[in-house]
């Protein structure tokens, strides 16, 4: 407190950049957000959040009103404004390979560097293959005026959708990869708001200061570990099923060991979303390039276990419906299936690489007449999977169904009344793709229940 705070910009106002820009204004920084998408910038300046994230709406309105937060499509303005520029653009999986597509990073950094007129720190936040920070540094030295003293640093983020506001305001660690004391000091100042908030709440936020490569690796290592934890418990689910065990009890029991921990041990349909699946693939591709491919071979298995969960749901559905499986998979023609859930997890409208939507499409491909409902993901799902029939609510989705599948653990689905739903369906058969229903209650209501 007391020390001057740097002015910060966030390049790319997607999920990551928009959340950061808004939360940093909330922390008291003067913030400018940038995007090439004029519609998105207009929306944000009008106080509308383009994504569904609890709490963000209110923070956007408050900080726009306070005059600490603005959004612009003008890179010259951004270059003039910022002491610290955070690169938050997307790094999707390449269309032609497992690696990451860095074209948005390249475009943002090049354009910023060309417009810089004063000293500044450029900090990468996007999830990238290790080595990208060095490459960004070269881009900057190629395109920025040499006498300004522009430096590069890397500081990965660990936002979880649905908890993103808290993850920015109250992170469990700050990681920075730097090459100079000046960069280190700037990044400390750029996180001072976070440290100050922690102090008022009697917490501490550890700051790990390291080199570029390690900072980049921390992010993918963390996501690889989380993905591995989920696939581990799903592998145990397969073994439990073969042996007649119960994976939910197993997870609970092993999770009491603090070295293992009970979080991220929920067996079910597996992981999806914009991060874990693409990150473990890009990580493998990069390790291969570095000659360390063997070290990450297990991540290939993590991916396979995860994808196997999707076909497993289709198989369980076929079993319950008494359908035979041919060489092309089960034939579900003539059946009607009600699917509850499209998003990759609850409390988001995100359907990117959503296991639920993938399963719904597989059921459709197998010949079933699929009726689907999701509390938030309908519009996005419709765009990705137009072949499905979209219904306005739970009751409509399950009406006359021969079987229902619960594929995202929304509270509305967990709390649904199996007795009432039983009156609507043609057959009381349920596949619980997230092990989120009270199986005894559903059995009592006359449902044939299958969990994962
Ligand atoms: C993930 C990480 O959790 C964040 O720390 C990271 O910053 C972020 O990716 C990112 O790289 O940006 P997110 O994609 O929001 O966050 O989603 P998670 O909450 O991690 O869930 C991922 C998937 O795993 C979901 O489909 C969820 O249903 C599934 N999951 C999660 C399980 O199947 N079982 C579990 O026990 C936990």
UniProtKB/TrEMBL annotation:
EC class name? oxidoreductase
Residue ranges of domain UDP-glucose/GDP-mannose dehydrogenase C-terminal in the record: 338-439
Task: Describe its function.
Answer: Catalyzes the conversion of UDP-glucose into UDP-glucuronate, one of the precursors of teichuronic acid.
Q: Mind telling me which NCBIfam families this protein's record contains?
A: NDP-sugDHase
**Residues holding substrate:** 158-161, 219, 264-268, 272, 345
- Report the family membership: Belongs to the UDP-glucose/GDP-mannose dehydrogenase family.
Q: Which GO terms describe its biological process?
A: polysaccharide biosynthetic process; UDP-glucuronate biosynthetic process
**Catalytic reaction annotation:** UDP-alpha-D-glucose + 2 NAD(+) + H2O = UDP-alpha-D-glucuronate + 2 NADH + 3 H(+)
- Could you tell me which species this protein originates from? Salinispora arenicola
The record's GO molecular-function terms, alphabetically, read:
NAD binding; UDP-glucose 6-dehydrogenase activity
Name the domain of life.
Answer: Bacteria
UniProt KW keywords: NAD, Oxidoreductase
**Annotated catalytic residues:** 275
- UniProt-annotated binding residues for NAD(+): 35, 40, 91, 127, 161, 278, 352
Q: Give EC number(s), comma-separated.
A: 1.1.1.22
Which pathway is this protein engaged in?
Answer: Nucleotide-sugar biosynthesis; UDP-alpha-D-glucuronate biosynthesis; UDP-alpha-D-glucuronate from UDP-alpha-D-glucose: step 1/1
* Protein name as it appears in the record: UDP-glucose 6-dehydrogenase
Q: Which PANTHER family match?
A: UDP-GLUCOSE 6-DEHYDROGENASE TUAD (PTHR43750)
Q: Per UniProt, what is one Pfam family of this protein? A: UDPG_MGDP_dh_N
């Amino acid at each position: 407190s007391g020390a001057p705070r740097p002015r910060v910009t966030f390049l790319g106002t997607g999920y990551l950049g928009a959340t950061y820009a808004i939360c940093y204004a909330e922390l008291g920084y003067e913030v400018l957000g940038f995007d090439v998408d004029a519609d998105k910038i207009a929306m944000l300046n009008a106080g509308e959040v383009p994504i569904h994230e609890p709490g963000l709406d209110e923070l956007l309105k408050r900080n726009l009103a306070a005059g600490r937060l603005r959004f612009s499509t003008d890179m010259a303005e951004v270059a003039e404004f910022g002491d610290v520029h955070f690169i938050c653009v997307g790094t999707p999986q390449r269309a032609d390979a497992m690696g990451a597509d860095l074209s948005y990073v390249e475009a943002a950094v090049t354009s910023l560097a060309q417009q810089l007129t004063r000293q500044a720190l450029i900090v990468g936040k996007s999830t990238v293959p290790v080595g990208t920070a060095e490459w960004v540094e070269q881009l900057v030295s190629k395109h920025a005026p040499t006498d300004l003293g522009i430096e590069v640093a890397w500081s990965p983020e660990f936002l979880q959708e649905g908890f993103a506001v808290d993850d920015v305001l109250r992170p469990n660690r700050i990681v920075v990869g730097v090459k100079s004391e000046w960069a280190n000091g700037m990044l400390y100042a750029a996180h001072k708001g976070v440290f100050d908030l922690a102090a008022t709440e009697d917490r501490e936020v550890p700051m790990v200061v390291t080199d570029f490569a390690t900072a980049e690796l921390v992010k993918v290592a963390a996501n690889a570990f989380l993905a591995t934890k989920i696939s581990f418990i799903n592998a145990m689910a397969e073994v439990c099923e073969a042996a007649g065990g119960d994976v939910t009890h197993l997870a609970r029991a092993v999770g009491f060991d603090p070295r293992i921990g009970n979080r991220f041990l929920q067996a079910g349909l597996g992981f999806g979303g914009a991060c874990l699946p693409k990150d473990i693939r890009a990580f493998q591709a990069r390790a291969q390039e570095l000659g360390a491919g063997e070290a990450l071979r297990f991540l290939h298995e993590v991916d396979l276990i995860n994808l196997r969960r999707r076909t497993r749901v289709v198989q369980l559905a076929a079993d319950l419906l008494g359908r035979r499986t041919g060489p092309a998979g089960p034939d579900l023609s003539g059946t009607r299936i009600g699917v509850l859930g499209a998003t990759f997890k609850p409390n988001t409208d995100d359907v990117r690489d959503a296991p639920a939507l993938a399963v719904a499409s597989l059921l459709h491909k197998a010949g079933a007449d699929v009726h689907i409902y999701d509390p938030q993901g309908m519009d996005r799902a419709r765009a990705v999977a137009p072949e499905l029939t979209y219904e306005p609510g739970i009751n409509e989705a399950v009406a006359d169904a021969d079987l229902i599948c619960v594929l995202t653990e929304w509270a509305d689905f967990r709390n649904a009344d199996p007795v009432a739903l039983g009156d609507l369906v043609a057959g009381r058969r349920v596949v619980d793709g997230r092990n989120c229903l009270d199986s005894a209650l559903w059995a009592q209501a006359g449902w044939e229940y299958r969990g994962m």
